[in-house]
Amino acid sequence: MGFTAVLVLPILVVIAAGVYYLYTEITRLMSKSAVRNKVVVITDAVSGMGKECSRVFHAGGARVILCGKSWEKLEALYDTLNSAADPSVTFTPKLVVLDFSDIDAIPDVTKEILECYGCVDVLISNTSMKVKAPVQNVSLEMDKRIMDTNYFGPITLTKGLLPSMISRRSGQLVLVNSIQGRLGVPFRTAYAASKHAAQAFFDCLRAEVEEFDISVSTISPTFIRSHHQQPEPRNAEKSTWKFFFRKFAHGVHPEEVANEVLRTVNRKKKEVLMANPIPRAALYIRSFLPGLFFAVVAAGVKDVPLVEEDTQ
Ligand SMILES: NC(=O)c1ccc[n+]([C@@H]2O[C@H](COP(=O)([O-])OP(=O)(O)OC[C@H]3O[C@@H](n4cnc5c(N)ncnc54)[C@H](OP(=O)(O)O)[C@@H]3O)[C@@H](O)[C@H]2O)c1
């Protein structure tokens, strides 16, 4: 019995891995076709994650409207996408300059976005500004800039696009958020507060717009590797342990998050958490054993430099 189990178990594991691989490949291909012809707006299309999202949706045949603060970066992205794509199955991207720190300009930008194709099927709110510093080193001005970029800007654009979605009784709103929208950790006061606010806004909105067939999704990664760090060569992932350790130590690659955004749009998932077991456990501990959570987090506090742009 024991000997048979030793023989059968690896075969079962290999079969299960094969089935899982096939399943993910098929769903990936199906996700691509599901966005074909859809009008997809991506805010901050030029950052690490935004670029990958733009590439994935553009290659999937979506009519992408790429938004970003810098026209030069948008044009560079436009060239990259056009040169890599098959023109027979892709649409030429539209470009729109969007700076969330200028809230008063957002109604005009919304109009410009709607004029591109007359409607928007999917809005992917991806923009964010990060700061990591002790609270006394973050000025109120900085707090406000972060709230504008991470909360007031995205919700103003969402509110601007909603009437058109409601009248068409169709639309998808996707917020790329962060686990810090669910958990407060030291030295991230402004960032975590803005992400909590955005999470709450979209959670409330989900229930309000369901009757109009508008879906709302939030995707919360823990740590996305910066874009210039390329994935390790495939052979480094032959060891399962290395595979998990790599993810744990370095976070997920923007491409993995972009593919998850695509799957989320395709399946209209309401909430996605991209996290390893430790942050997942932290979420449960925060809910059920808050005293323990606060004690562990306080124990981890160390000196950090003055105000700086965060890298994660
Ligand atoms: N990176 C991570 O580890 C991580 C983890 C969890 C969640 N996330 C979430 O994933 C999303 C993408 O993050 P990312 O790390 O790919 O971004 P990123 O590399 O940090 O880039 C931030 C981008 O936001 C732009 N930006 C800043 N202020 C803006 C404003 N006022 N208006 C318009 N654009 C503005 C920046 O443009 P300029 O460079 O021109 O200033 C830059 O392109 C964010 O929502 C983030 O919260 C990231």
TrEMBL record:
Q: Which GO terms describe its cellular component?
A: cytoplasm; membrane
Keywords tagged on the record: Membrane, NAD, NADP, Oxidoreductase, Signal, Transmembrane, Transmembrane helix
Write down the InterPro entries for this protein, in alphabetical order: NAD(P)-bd_dom_sf, Sc_DH/Rdtase_CS, SDR_fam, SDR_family_member_7C
Question: Which residue windows are coiled coil?
Answer: none
Where do transmembrane segments lie in this chain?
6-23, 283-301
Q: What superkingdom heads the lineage?
A: Eukaryota
Q: GO molecular function, one example?
A: oxidoreductase activity, acting on the CH-OH group of donors, NAD or NADP as acceptor
One of the protein's GO biological processes: intracellular calcium ion homeostasis
Which family would the database say this protein is a member of?
Belongs to the short-chain dehydrogenases/reductases (SDR) family.
Q: What is this protein's record name?
A: Dehydrogenase/reductase SDR family member 7C
